[in-house]
């Protein structure tokens, strides 16, 4: 038996009780008609949270990083250009994954803690109109910055696709895949969707589906080839690809059910409210919120520690004495800052109260 | 709520009760010291079932197919030669995945239903001694054939690595990674290990680890790069890579615990006994066991249907009326045969009795 933590790091978060309960349902075979119906209903729920009518919407059997790689590997061919917005760790990871699948990468930087400039991304594209895609992280998990996506809808009028990382945003703040002209979007289940990790929701526009279909070379990854996953989950008859886990999909389905029962606007409002409360209170304890005001995510707060607090030691006390996990800092906050998540089931006043009550004894 | 099936297909199988119970344990963060200790203990249990002392032994966050791809992508560089034994669907998949990561592939065939000839594989290697690896499926899930691996230990004296697929064998029949000179081996959790799907156990020899370390080009997959997974799970300090699921790892750990408590010899004997009973009884019902006698797996039986039985219809009655899943045939058995698994928790007399009792009403 292991410990029971209040998970206030950058994810995983504690899942909704409904998502936990669903984990113990009887296992279904990966080609059972009931399982494929469960996948189809999960995809329908995902369309609602993604704000899309995309036919190709499915759960990839892996974590958010697998969703990222499934999109990049399926959309990019060797030698093609990817323009990537980079203002944190996950923008850098997009570059790394794109390079590994053989693409050329042009990074458009903004400082960590500040938002990307959509105009700079559009400029880069207009100077390289043959670029296959522009890739951007919506919610930078490393810094707590919210990047602005709506202006990038202008890419719809070009031949360049828009790829969006919503790992930390989906279910926490509004995501509007269709109205923002997003061509491919991936997320993860263990953050604002309130389920365990292990599944990456992915949605792909019809024009991006055509690009995948018209590829010259097969996708370097068999496991993460979105056209094979499409033929499995939505083929008629379904074409065997891998042994998807009914255990995880049932849990994600149940978590999404709980979220949609509450309603997206209410869920967003709940995340906004608790995040603002935390961000207002942290400076009173000597913390300095890292992300630029006006561009902060409510669900993920990166903050510099008060002077004199030893990072690893304080997190250990928090974990072992109080049973609370927070995340270590990344990049400029390595060893000097924390990342605090209030996501999904943990986007509750109770979580903020618990954390704030514990802080004084650490400082 | 969905149906409760007796899963007698090629996997998933119904997990051990201990593995189901563990799914609802509190979620742990992916960098929590307790989680990393759980991973380490899971790796230790995996070493026992793999029959290895390999340091690099870990659970890949994906299904068996991800394990296959993690090994091929990490071990092969573009242009290198892979010699692949092919006597069924999963041998063909090895070729496909190896080609996608950029390797050249030389297939060494045997007919579906018959075992590979180890001498033919060794011959192929001696004629192409610069081949990076020889890859073989131990238990062909498509045909129920057991391939002989021990003679391939001779590859130890060459520069060619031995890669072994134990997706359907691990925990069901003896696997001896070290004494067979296997350099890389992957499996899956939803078959004879008695846990849900979603995790691929992988083990890699020290000489294969050196090959990965000495690569000229990075692995095309970030998500499935075994050196990054090693740095995450066994690094000091652990280096963040992806958000591994404590939910799944807890379940696999518990399933392995149950298996090792019973003891590997007893578990193998249990699989052997029920498989022999099924294979002795099937001909009495008009089925013809597909794999060559003397090379049959007890845990997975492919069999031709009796004349006059309509495959999909009979499987539907079995599923809907009796609550039993069996698998469709593949290759030469498509539409004319079934694959019946007796794996892990379902390697029980009860399962054989239930299935055999249902058969007469289908025929």
Fold and architecture overview:
The structure is a homodimer of 363-residue chains. By secondary structure, chain A is an alpha/beta fold. The first copy, chain A, folds into two domains: 106 residues, Aspartate Aminotransferase, domain 1 (Alpha-Beta Complex), CATH 3.90.1150.10; 243 residues, Aspartate Aminotransferase, domain 2 (3-Layer(aba) Sandwich), CATH 3.40.640. The first copy, chain A, is built from eleven helices and 15 strands. In chain A, a hairpin with a 4-residue loop joins strand 6 and strand 7. In chain A, helix 1 runs antiparallel to helix 8, helix 2 runs parallel beside helix 8 and helix 8 crosses helix 9. The first copy, chain A, starts with 5 loop residues before the first strand and ends in a 5-residue tail after the last helix. At the A-B interface, helix 1, helix 2, helix 3, helix 4 and helix 8 of A face helix 1, helix 2, helix 3, helix 4 and helix 8 of B.
User: What is the assembly state of the chains in this entry?
Assistant: homodimer
Rounded to the nearest angstrom, the radius of gyration of chain A is: 20 Å
Overall shape of chain A:
globular
| Class by SSE composition of chain A | alpha/beta
Output the CATH homologous superfamily of the largest domain in chain A: Type I PLP-dependent aspartate aminotransferase-like (Major domain)
Return the string of H and E elements of chain A.
Answer: EHHEHEHEHEEEEEEHHHHEEHEEEH
Write the CATH architecture name of the largest domain in chain A: 3-Layer(aba) Sandwich
Task: List unreliable stretches of 5+ residues of chain A.
Answer: none
Report mean pLDDT of chain A, rounded to a whole number: 97
How much helix is in the residues of chain A? Answer: 25-40%
Query: Biggest interface and its residues per chain?
Result: A-B, 67 and 68 residues
Q: State the strand order across the main sheet of chain A.
A: 2-10-9-8-5-3-4
State the major sheet of chain A.
Answer: 7 strands, mixed
Count of DSSP-assigned helices of chain A: 11
Write down how many β-strands of chain A occur, each being a DSSP E stretch of 2 or more residues: 15
CATH class of the largest domain in chain A: Alpha Beta
Report the β-strand fraction of chain A as a percent range: 15-25%
Number of domains of chain A: 2
**CATH domain fold name of the largest domain in chain A:** Aspartate Aminotransferase, domain 2
How far apart lie the N and C ends of chain A?
31 Å
């Amino acid at each position: 038996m292991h410990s029971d933590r209040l998970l206030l790091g950058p994810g995983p978060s504690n899942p909704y009780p409904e998502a936990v309960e669903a984990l113990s349902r009887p296992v279904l075979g990966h080609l059972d008609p009931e399982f494929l119906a469960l996948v189809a209903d999960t995809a329908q729920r995902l369309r609602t949270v993604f704000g899309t009518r995309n036919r190709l919407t499915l759960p990839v059997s892996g974590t958010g990083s697998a969703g990222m790689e499934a999109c990049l590997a399926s959309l990019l061919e060797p030698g093609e250009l990817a323009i990537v917005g980079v203002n944190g760790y996950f923008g850098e990871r997009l570059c790394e994954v794109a390079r590994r699948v053989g693409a050329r990468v042009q990074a458009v930087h903004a400082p960590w803690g500040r938002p990307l400039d959509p105009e700079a991304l559009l400029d880069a594209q207009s100077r390289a109109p043959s670029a296959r895609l522009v890739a951007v992280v919506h919610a930078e998990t490393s810094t707590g910055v919210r990047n602005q996506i709506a202006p990038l809808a202008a890419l719809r009028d070009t031949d360049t696709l828009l790829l969006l990382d919503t790992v930390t945003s989906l279910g926490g703040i509004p995501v509007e895949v269709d109205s923002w002209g997003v061509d491919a979007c991936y997320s993860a289940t263990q953050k604002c969707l309130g389920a365990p990790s292990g599944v990456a929701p992915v949605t792909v526009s019809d024009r991006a589906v055509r690009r995948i279909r018209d590829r010259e070379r097969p996708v370097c990854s068999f496991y993460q080839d979105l056209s094979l996953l499409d033929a499995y989950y939505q083929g008629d008859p379904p074409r065997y690809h891998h042994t998807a886990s009914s255990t995880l999909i049932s849990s994600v389905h149940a978590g999404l059910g709980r979220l949609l029962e509450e309603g997206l606007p209410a869920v967003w409002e709940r995340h906004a409210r608790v995040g603002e409360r935390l961000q207002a209170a942290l400076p009173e304890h000597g913390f300095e919120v890292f992300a630029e005001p006006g561009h902060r995510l409510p669900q993920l707060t990166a903050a510099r520690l008060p002077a004199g607090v030893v990072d690893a030691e304080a997190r250990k006390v928090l974990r072992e004495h109080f049973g609370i996990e927070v995340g270590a800092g990344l990049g400029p906050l390595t060893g000097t800052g924390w990342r605090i998540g209030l996501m999904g089931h943990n986007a509750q006043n109770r979580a903020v109260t618990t954390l704030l009550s514990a802080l004084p004894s650490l400082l």
